[in-house]
Amino acid sequence: MTTHPERIIPTDLSSEMSQSYLEYAMSVIVGRALPDARDGLKPVHRRILFAMYELGLTPDRPFRKCARVVGEVLGKYHPHGDTAVYDALVRMAQNFSMRDPLIEGHGNFGSIDNDPPAAMRYTESRLQNLSMNALLRDIEAETVDFIDNFDGSQQEPIVLPARIPQLLLNGSSGIAVGMATNIPPHNLGELVDGAIAMIHNPEITNTELMKYIPGPDFPTGAQILGRSGIKDAYTNGRGSITMRGVAQIETIQQRGRPEREAIIVTELPYQTNKAALIEKIAELVNDKRIDGIADIRDESDRDGMRIVIELKRDAYPRVVLNNLYKQTPIQANFGANMLALVNGEPQVLTLKDFLEVFLDFRVEVITRRTNYELRKAEERDHVLQGLLVALANLDAIIQLIRHAADTATAKRELVDQFGLSEVQADAILQMQLRRLTALESEKIQAEHEELLQKITDLRDILERRERVDHIIEEELNQLKTTHATPRRTEIIQEDGELIDLDLIANEQAVILLTEQGYIKRMPVSTFGQQSRATRGKSAAKIKEDDGVEHFLSCCDHDYILFFSDRGVVYVLGAYQIPSSSRTARGVPIVQMLPIPKNEKITSMLAVSEFSEDCYLIMLTRQGYIKKTVLSAYSNIRANGLIAITLSEGDQLRWVRLAREEDSIIIGTRKGMAIHFKADSEQLRPTGRTARGVKSMKLKGTDEIISVDILPSQVVANIATSEDEVEDETLETEEIISEETNVGPWVLAITTGGYGKRVPVSQFRLQKRAGMGVKAIRFKNDHDQLVAIHVVNQDDEMMMVTNRGIIIRQAVDAITPQSRMATGVRVQRLDEDDAIAAVALVPPSAEGEDPESE
């Protein structure tokens, strides 16, 4: 064997390795592992979708075997292993992997338990509507460039003409050489809103975009804990997003066994293997690293996921759940690494960068599509102009064609004699005789005029950028209308996290807490204002053995203070309480607050700020009252803070906000009311842990049911009584004229659905610890007073019954009456139902009237 010296090239080994490895790395980065920022697809996904499009596997066509699709992709575009192609196809059809799947699968495509899909010879697939409408439409309109495939026998697109930011919609993950990408999925409707906001304001910041795109939206739902990781990912391109499964603590009953508490997991973090999770929990229990679990079983079915973790009798559910969060994938981190290819180069992108790349690409696509349509329109119009010339000179042209020796001669003479182009001459020679009729001539003329208008419009689009922006916005809104779905992943605040409230709308809300401890938040606008004496709407899914316990109206930016019967106060931001539909039951409050088993929430209070000149008025079941400055409760620990010291057998029941100059009115179940000042003479300010003083003398089995605050400007005009007044009969029970008395009033509502407004002047100021005066006369012996509130002319109130029926009314719909009147019917009730609570609707956060239905 002879060696040819001229074929041997001496090369430095280190430089050759460096150069070769760099070329290999770039090949992997560009050709396999990283998605393009324009259409959000890697080459294999793009080739699968394009091959299916060429095969005609559109949503309106029958399914075809996946083996047929894989063979098409391998043979034409992707010369790699069939497993890699099939795995990519399967993932695009899995609704637990893709937020909006691009392929519709028929057959076994795997499960969240990591079960493998069936072999490609068994499964079938076709394109989803979203793929056609948002990725492949206009691909034949010269909107993107095509290149040769691996052997030069076919052409494939280098990018698809995406109409949505697909990379953010479905996310992407990939490991290249020396770099990796991990982009979370998002909600289509939110992405459209963000893109449109950027069209209107190109200088918008990443933080401002987060008002439209608050965070990822994972296909498996679950929760995102805190916003700091999201903000890091959106502003820096990298961030750790904490995901947490949705778990509820429930009491379960099995035949022949006593009741037990159980943790029910209904949603898992993105990319969590359910079977592996159950195995992990069982392993931790066997190793005694988690205590309190008696049994674990998977009750998931086609209706949804349900993992039941049954607890031992002496277990604390909240402690067990926290241990599960710490030691199992029920809580996991998503390491966002927003890396994608921009102009063939890998770049770390912010949220704004992603949308900028997408919108620039849309401008390019629409410009190219418009140029294509303009060229086609001009070519067609050019032909029509030739046909119109022929129709105008019909006899001469027929004569010319009849006497021509052949087609080429006829074509040449048409060009020479009538000034036509070769294309127009060809069209005339190919024209059918039926097109010579008068009707066909009119059609040609109408089509010509229509094309002239279209050409003018297309040229206008090319000349004006605002037209292009309008088209982008219009197409985005069409996709949102057709394909957008509600958000699945809820973003909740992490303990100790400082949140930017500007990112949360300050809307009016209603918070409902049931006797069994289920809490929920609903927009006030859910309940339109209704007339007096109607039945109202169901506000919650209340079980037979449950009922509404507390009812509060607030704004989403408020702090909600929760006071327990043991005198402990807890705090949550109103926006942290999960928002639910009217018919949902809500979530157990023990999931939101670390409340012990033997403790119960007895009062809720909305506070916008912890000021120094405001006081908390606390009233216990036994009638002890105290006043403590609000700022003493500004730093409430995660496990609560002592709010009041209670005597044996007493409970904290009511808490209100007041100022030094205000006065207090207290009502009892049997219809008595006492009114005294909140100043230091009647009620001296005390420390946070003080017990308080006696508020009112109670007669027989009577008990306190409500307390409210009268503002200082009203108190100044009310007479003072030095006497202890047990009862008092007014001279009249007639309706009081609203013209002479414009409020405020004391609103009194009974369990039987009756209510009235009484002028506050009829409740004389007394000394604390008196018996008070009669506030209402009951319709029957079974009726009782359920609430008293100080109201004004323009106020609105909401009432809720034991069954969870809510009615929203204007206060002025209730007639003003004297103290001794029975009132009017304010809500029509079923026989076994009763008014449970009454709350006033706060003024709109934006200074406008609340929305009505």
From TrEMBL:
Predominant location: cytoplasm
Topo IIA-type catalytic domain segment(s): 34-503
Q: Which InterPro entries match?
A: GyrA, GyrA/parC_rep, Gyrase/topoIV_suA_C, Topo_IIA-like_dom_sf, Topo_IIA_A/C_ab, Topo_IIA_A_a_sf, Topo_IIA_dom_A, Type_II_DNA_Topoisomerases
User: What is this enzyme's catalytic activity, as reactions?
Assistant: ATP-dependent breakage, passage and rejoining of double-stranded DNA
Other remarks? Answer: Few gyrases are as efficient as E.coli at forming negative supercoils. Not all organisms have 2 type II topoisomerases; in organisms with a single type II topoisomerase this enzyme also has to decatenate newly replicated chromosomes.
Q: Which PANTHER family match?
A: DNA GYRASE SUBUNIT A, CHLOROPLASTIC_MITOCHONDRIAL (PTHR43493:SF5), DNA GYRASE/TOPOISOMERASE SUBUNIT A (PTHR43493)
Q: Kindly state the subunit structure of this protein.
A: Heterotetramer, composed of two GyrA and two GyrB chains. In the heterotetramer, GyrA contains the active site tyrosine that forms a transient covalent intermediate with DNA, while GyrB binds cofactors and catalyzes ATP hydrolysis.
What name does UniProt use for this protein? DNA gyrase subunit A
| Source organism per UniProt | Gloeothece citriformis (strain PCC 7424) (Cyanothece sp. (strain PCC 7424))
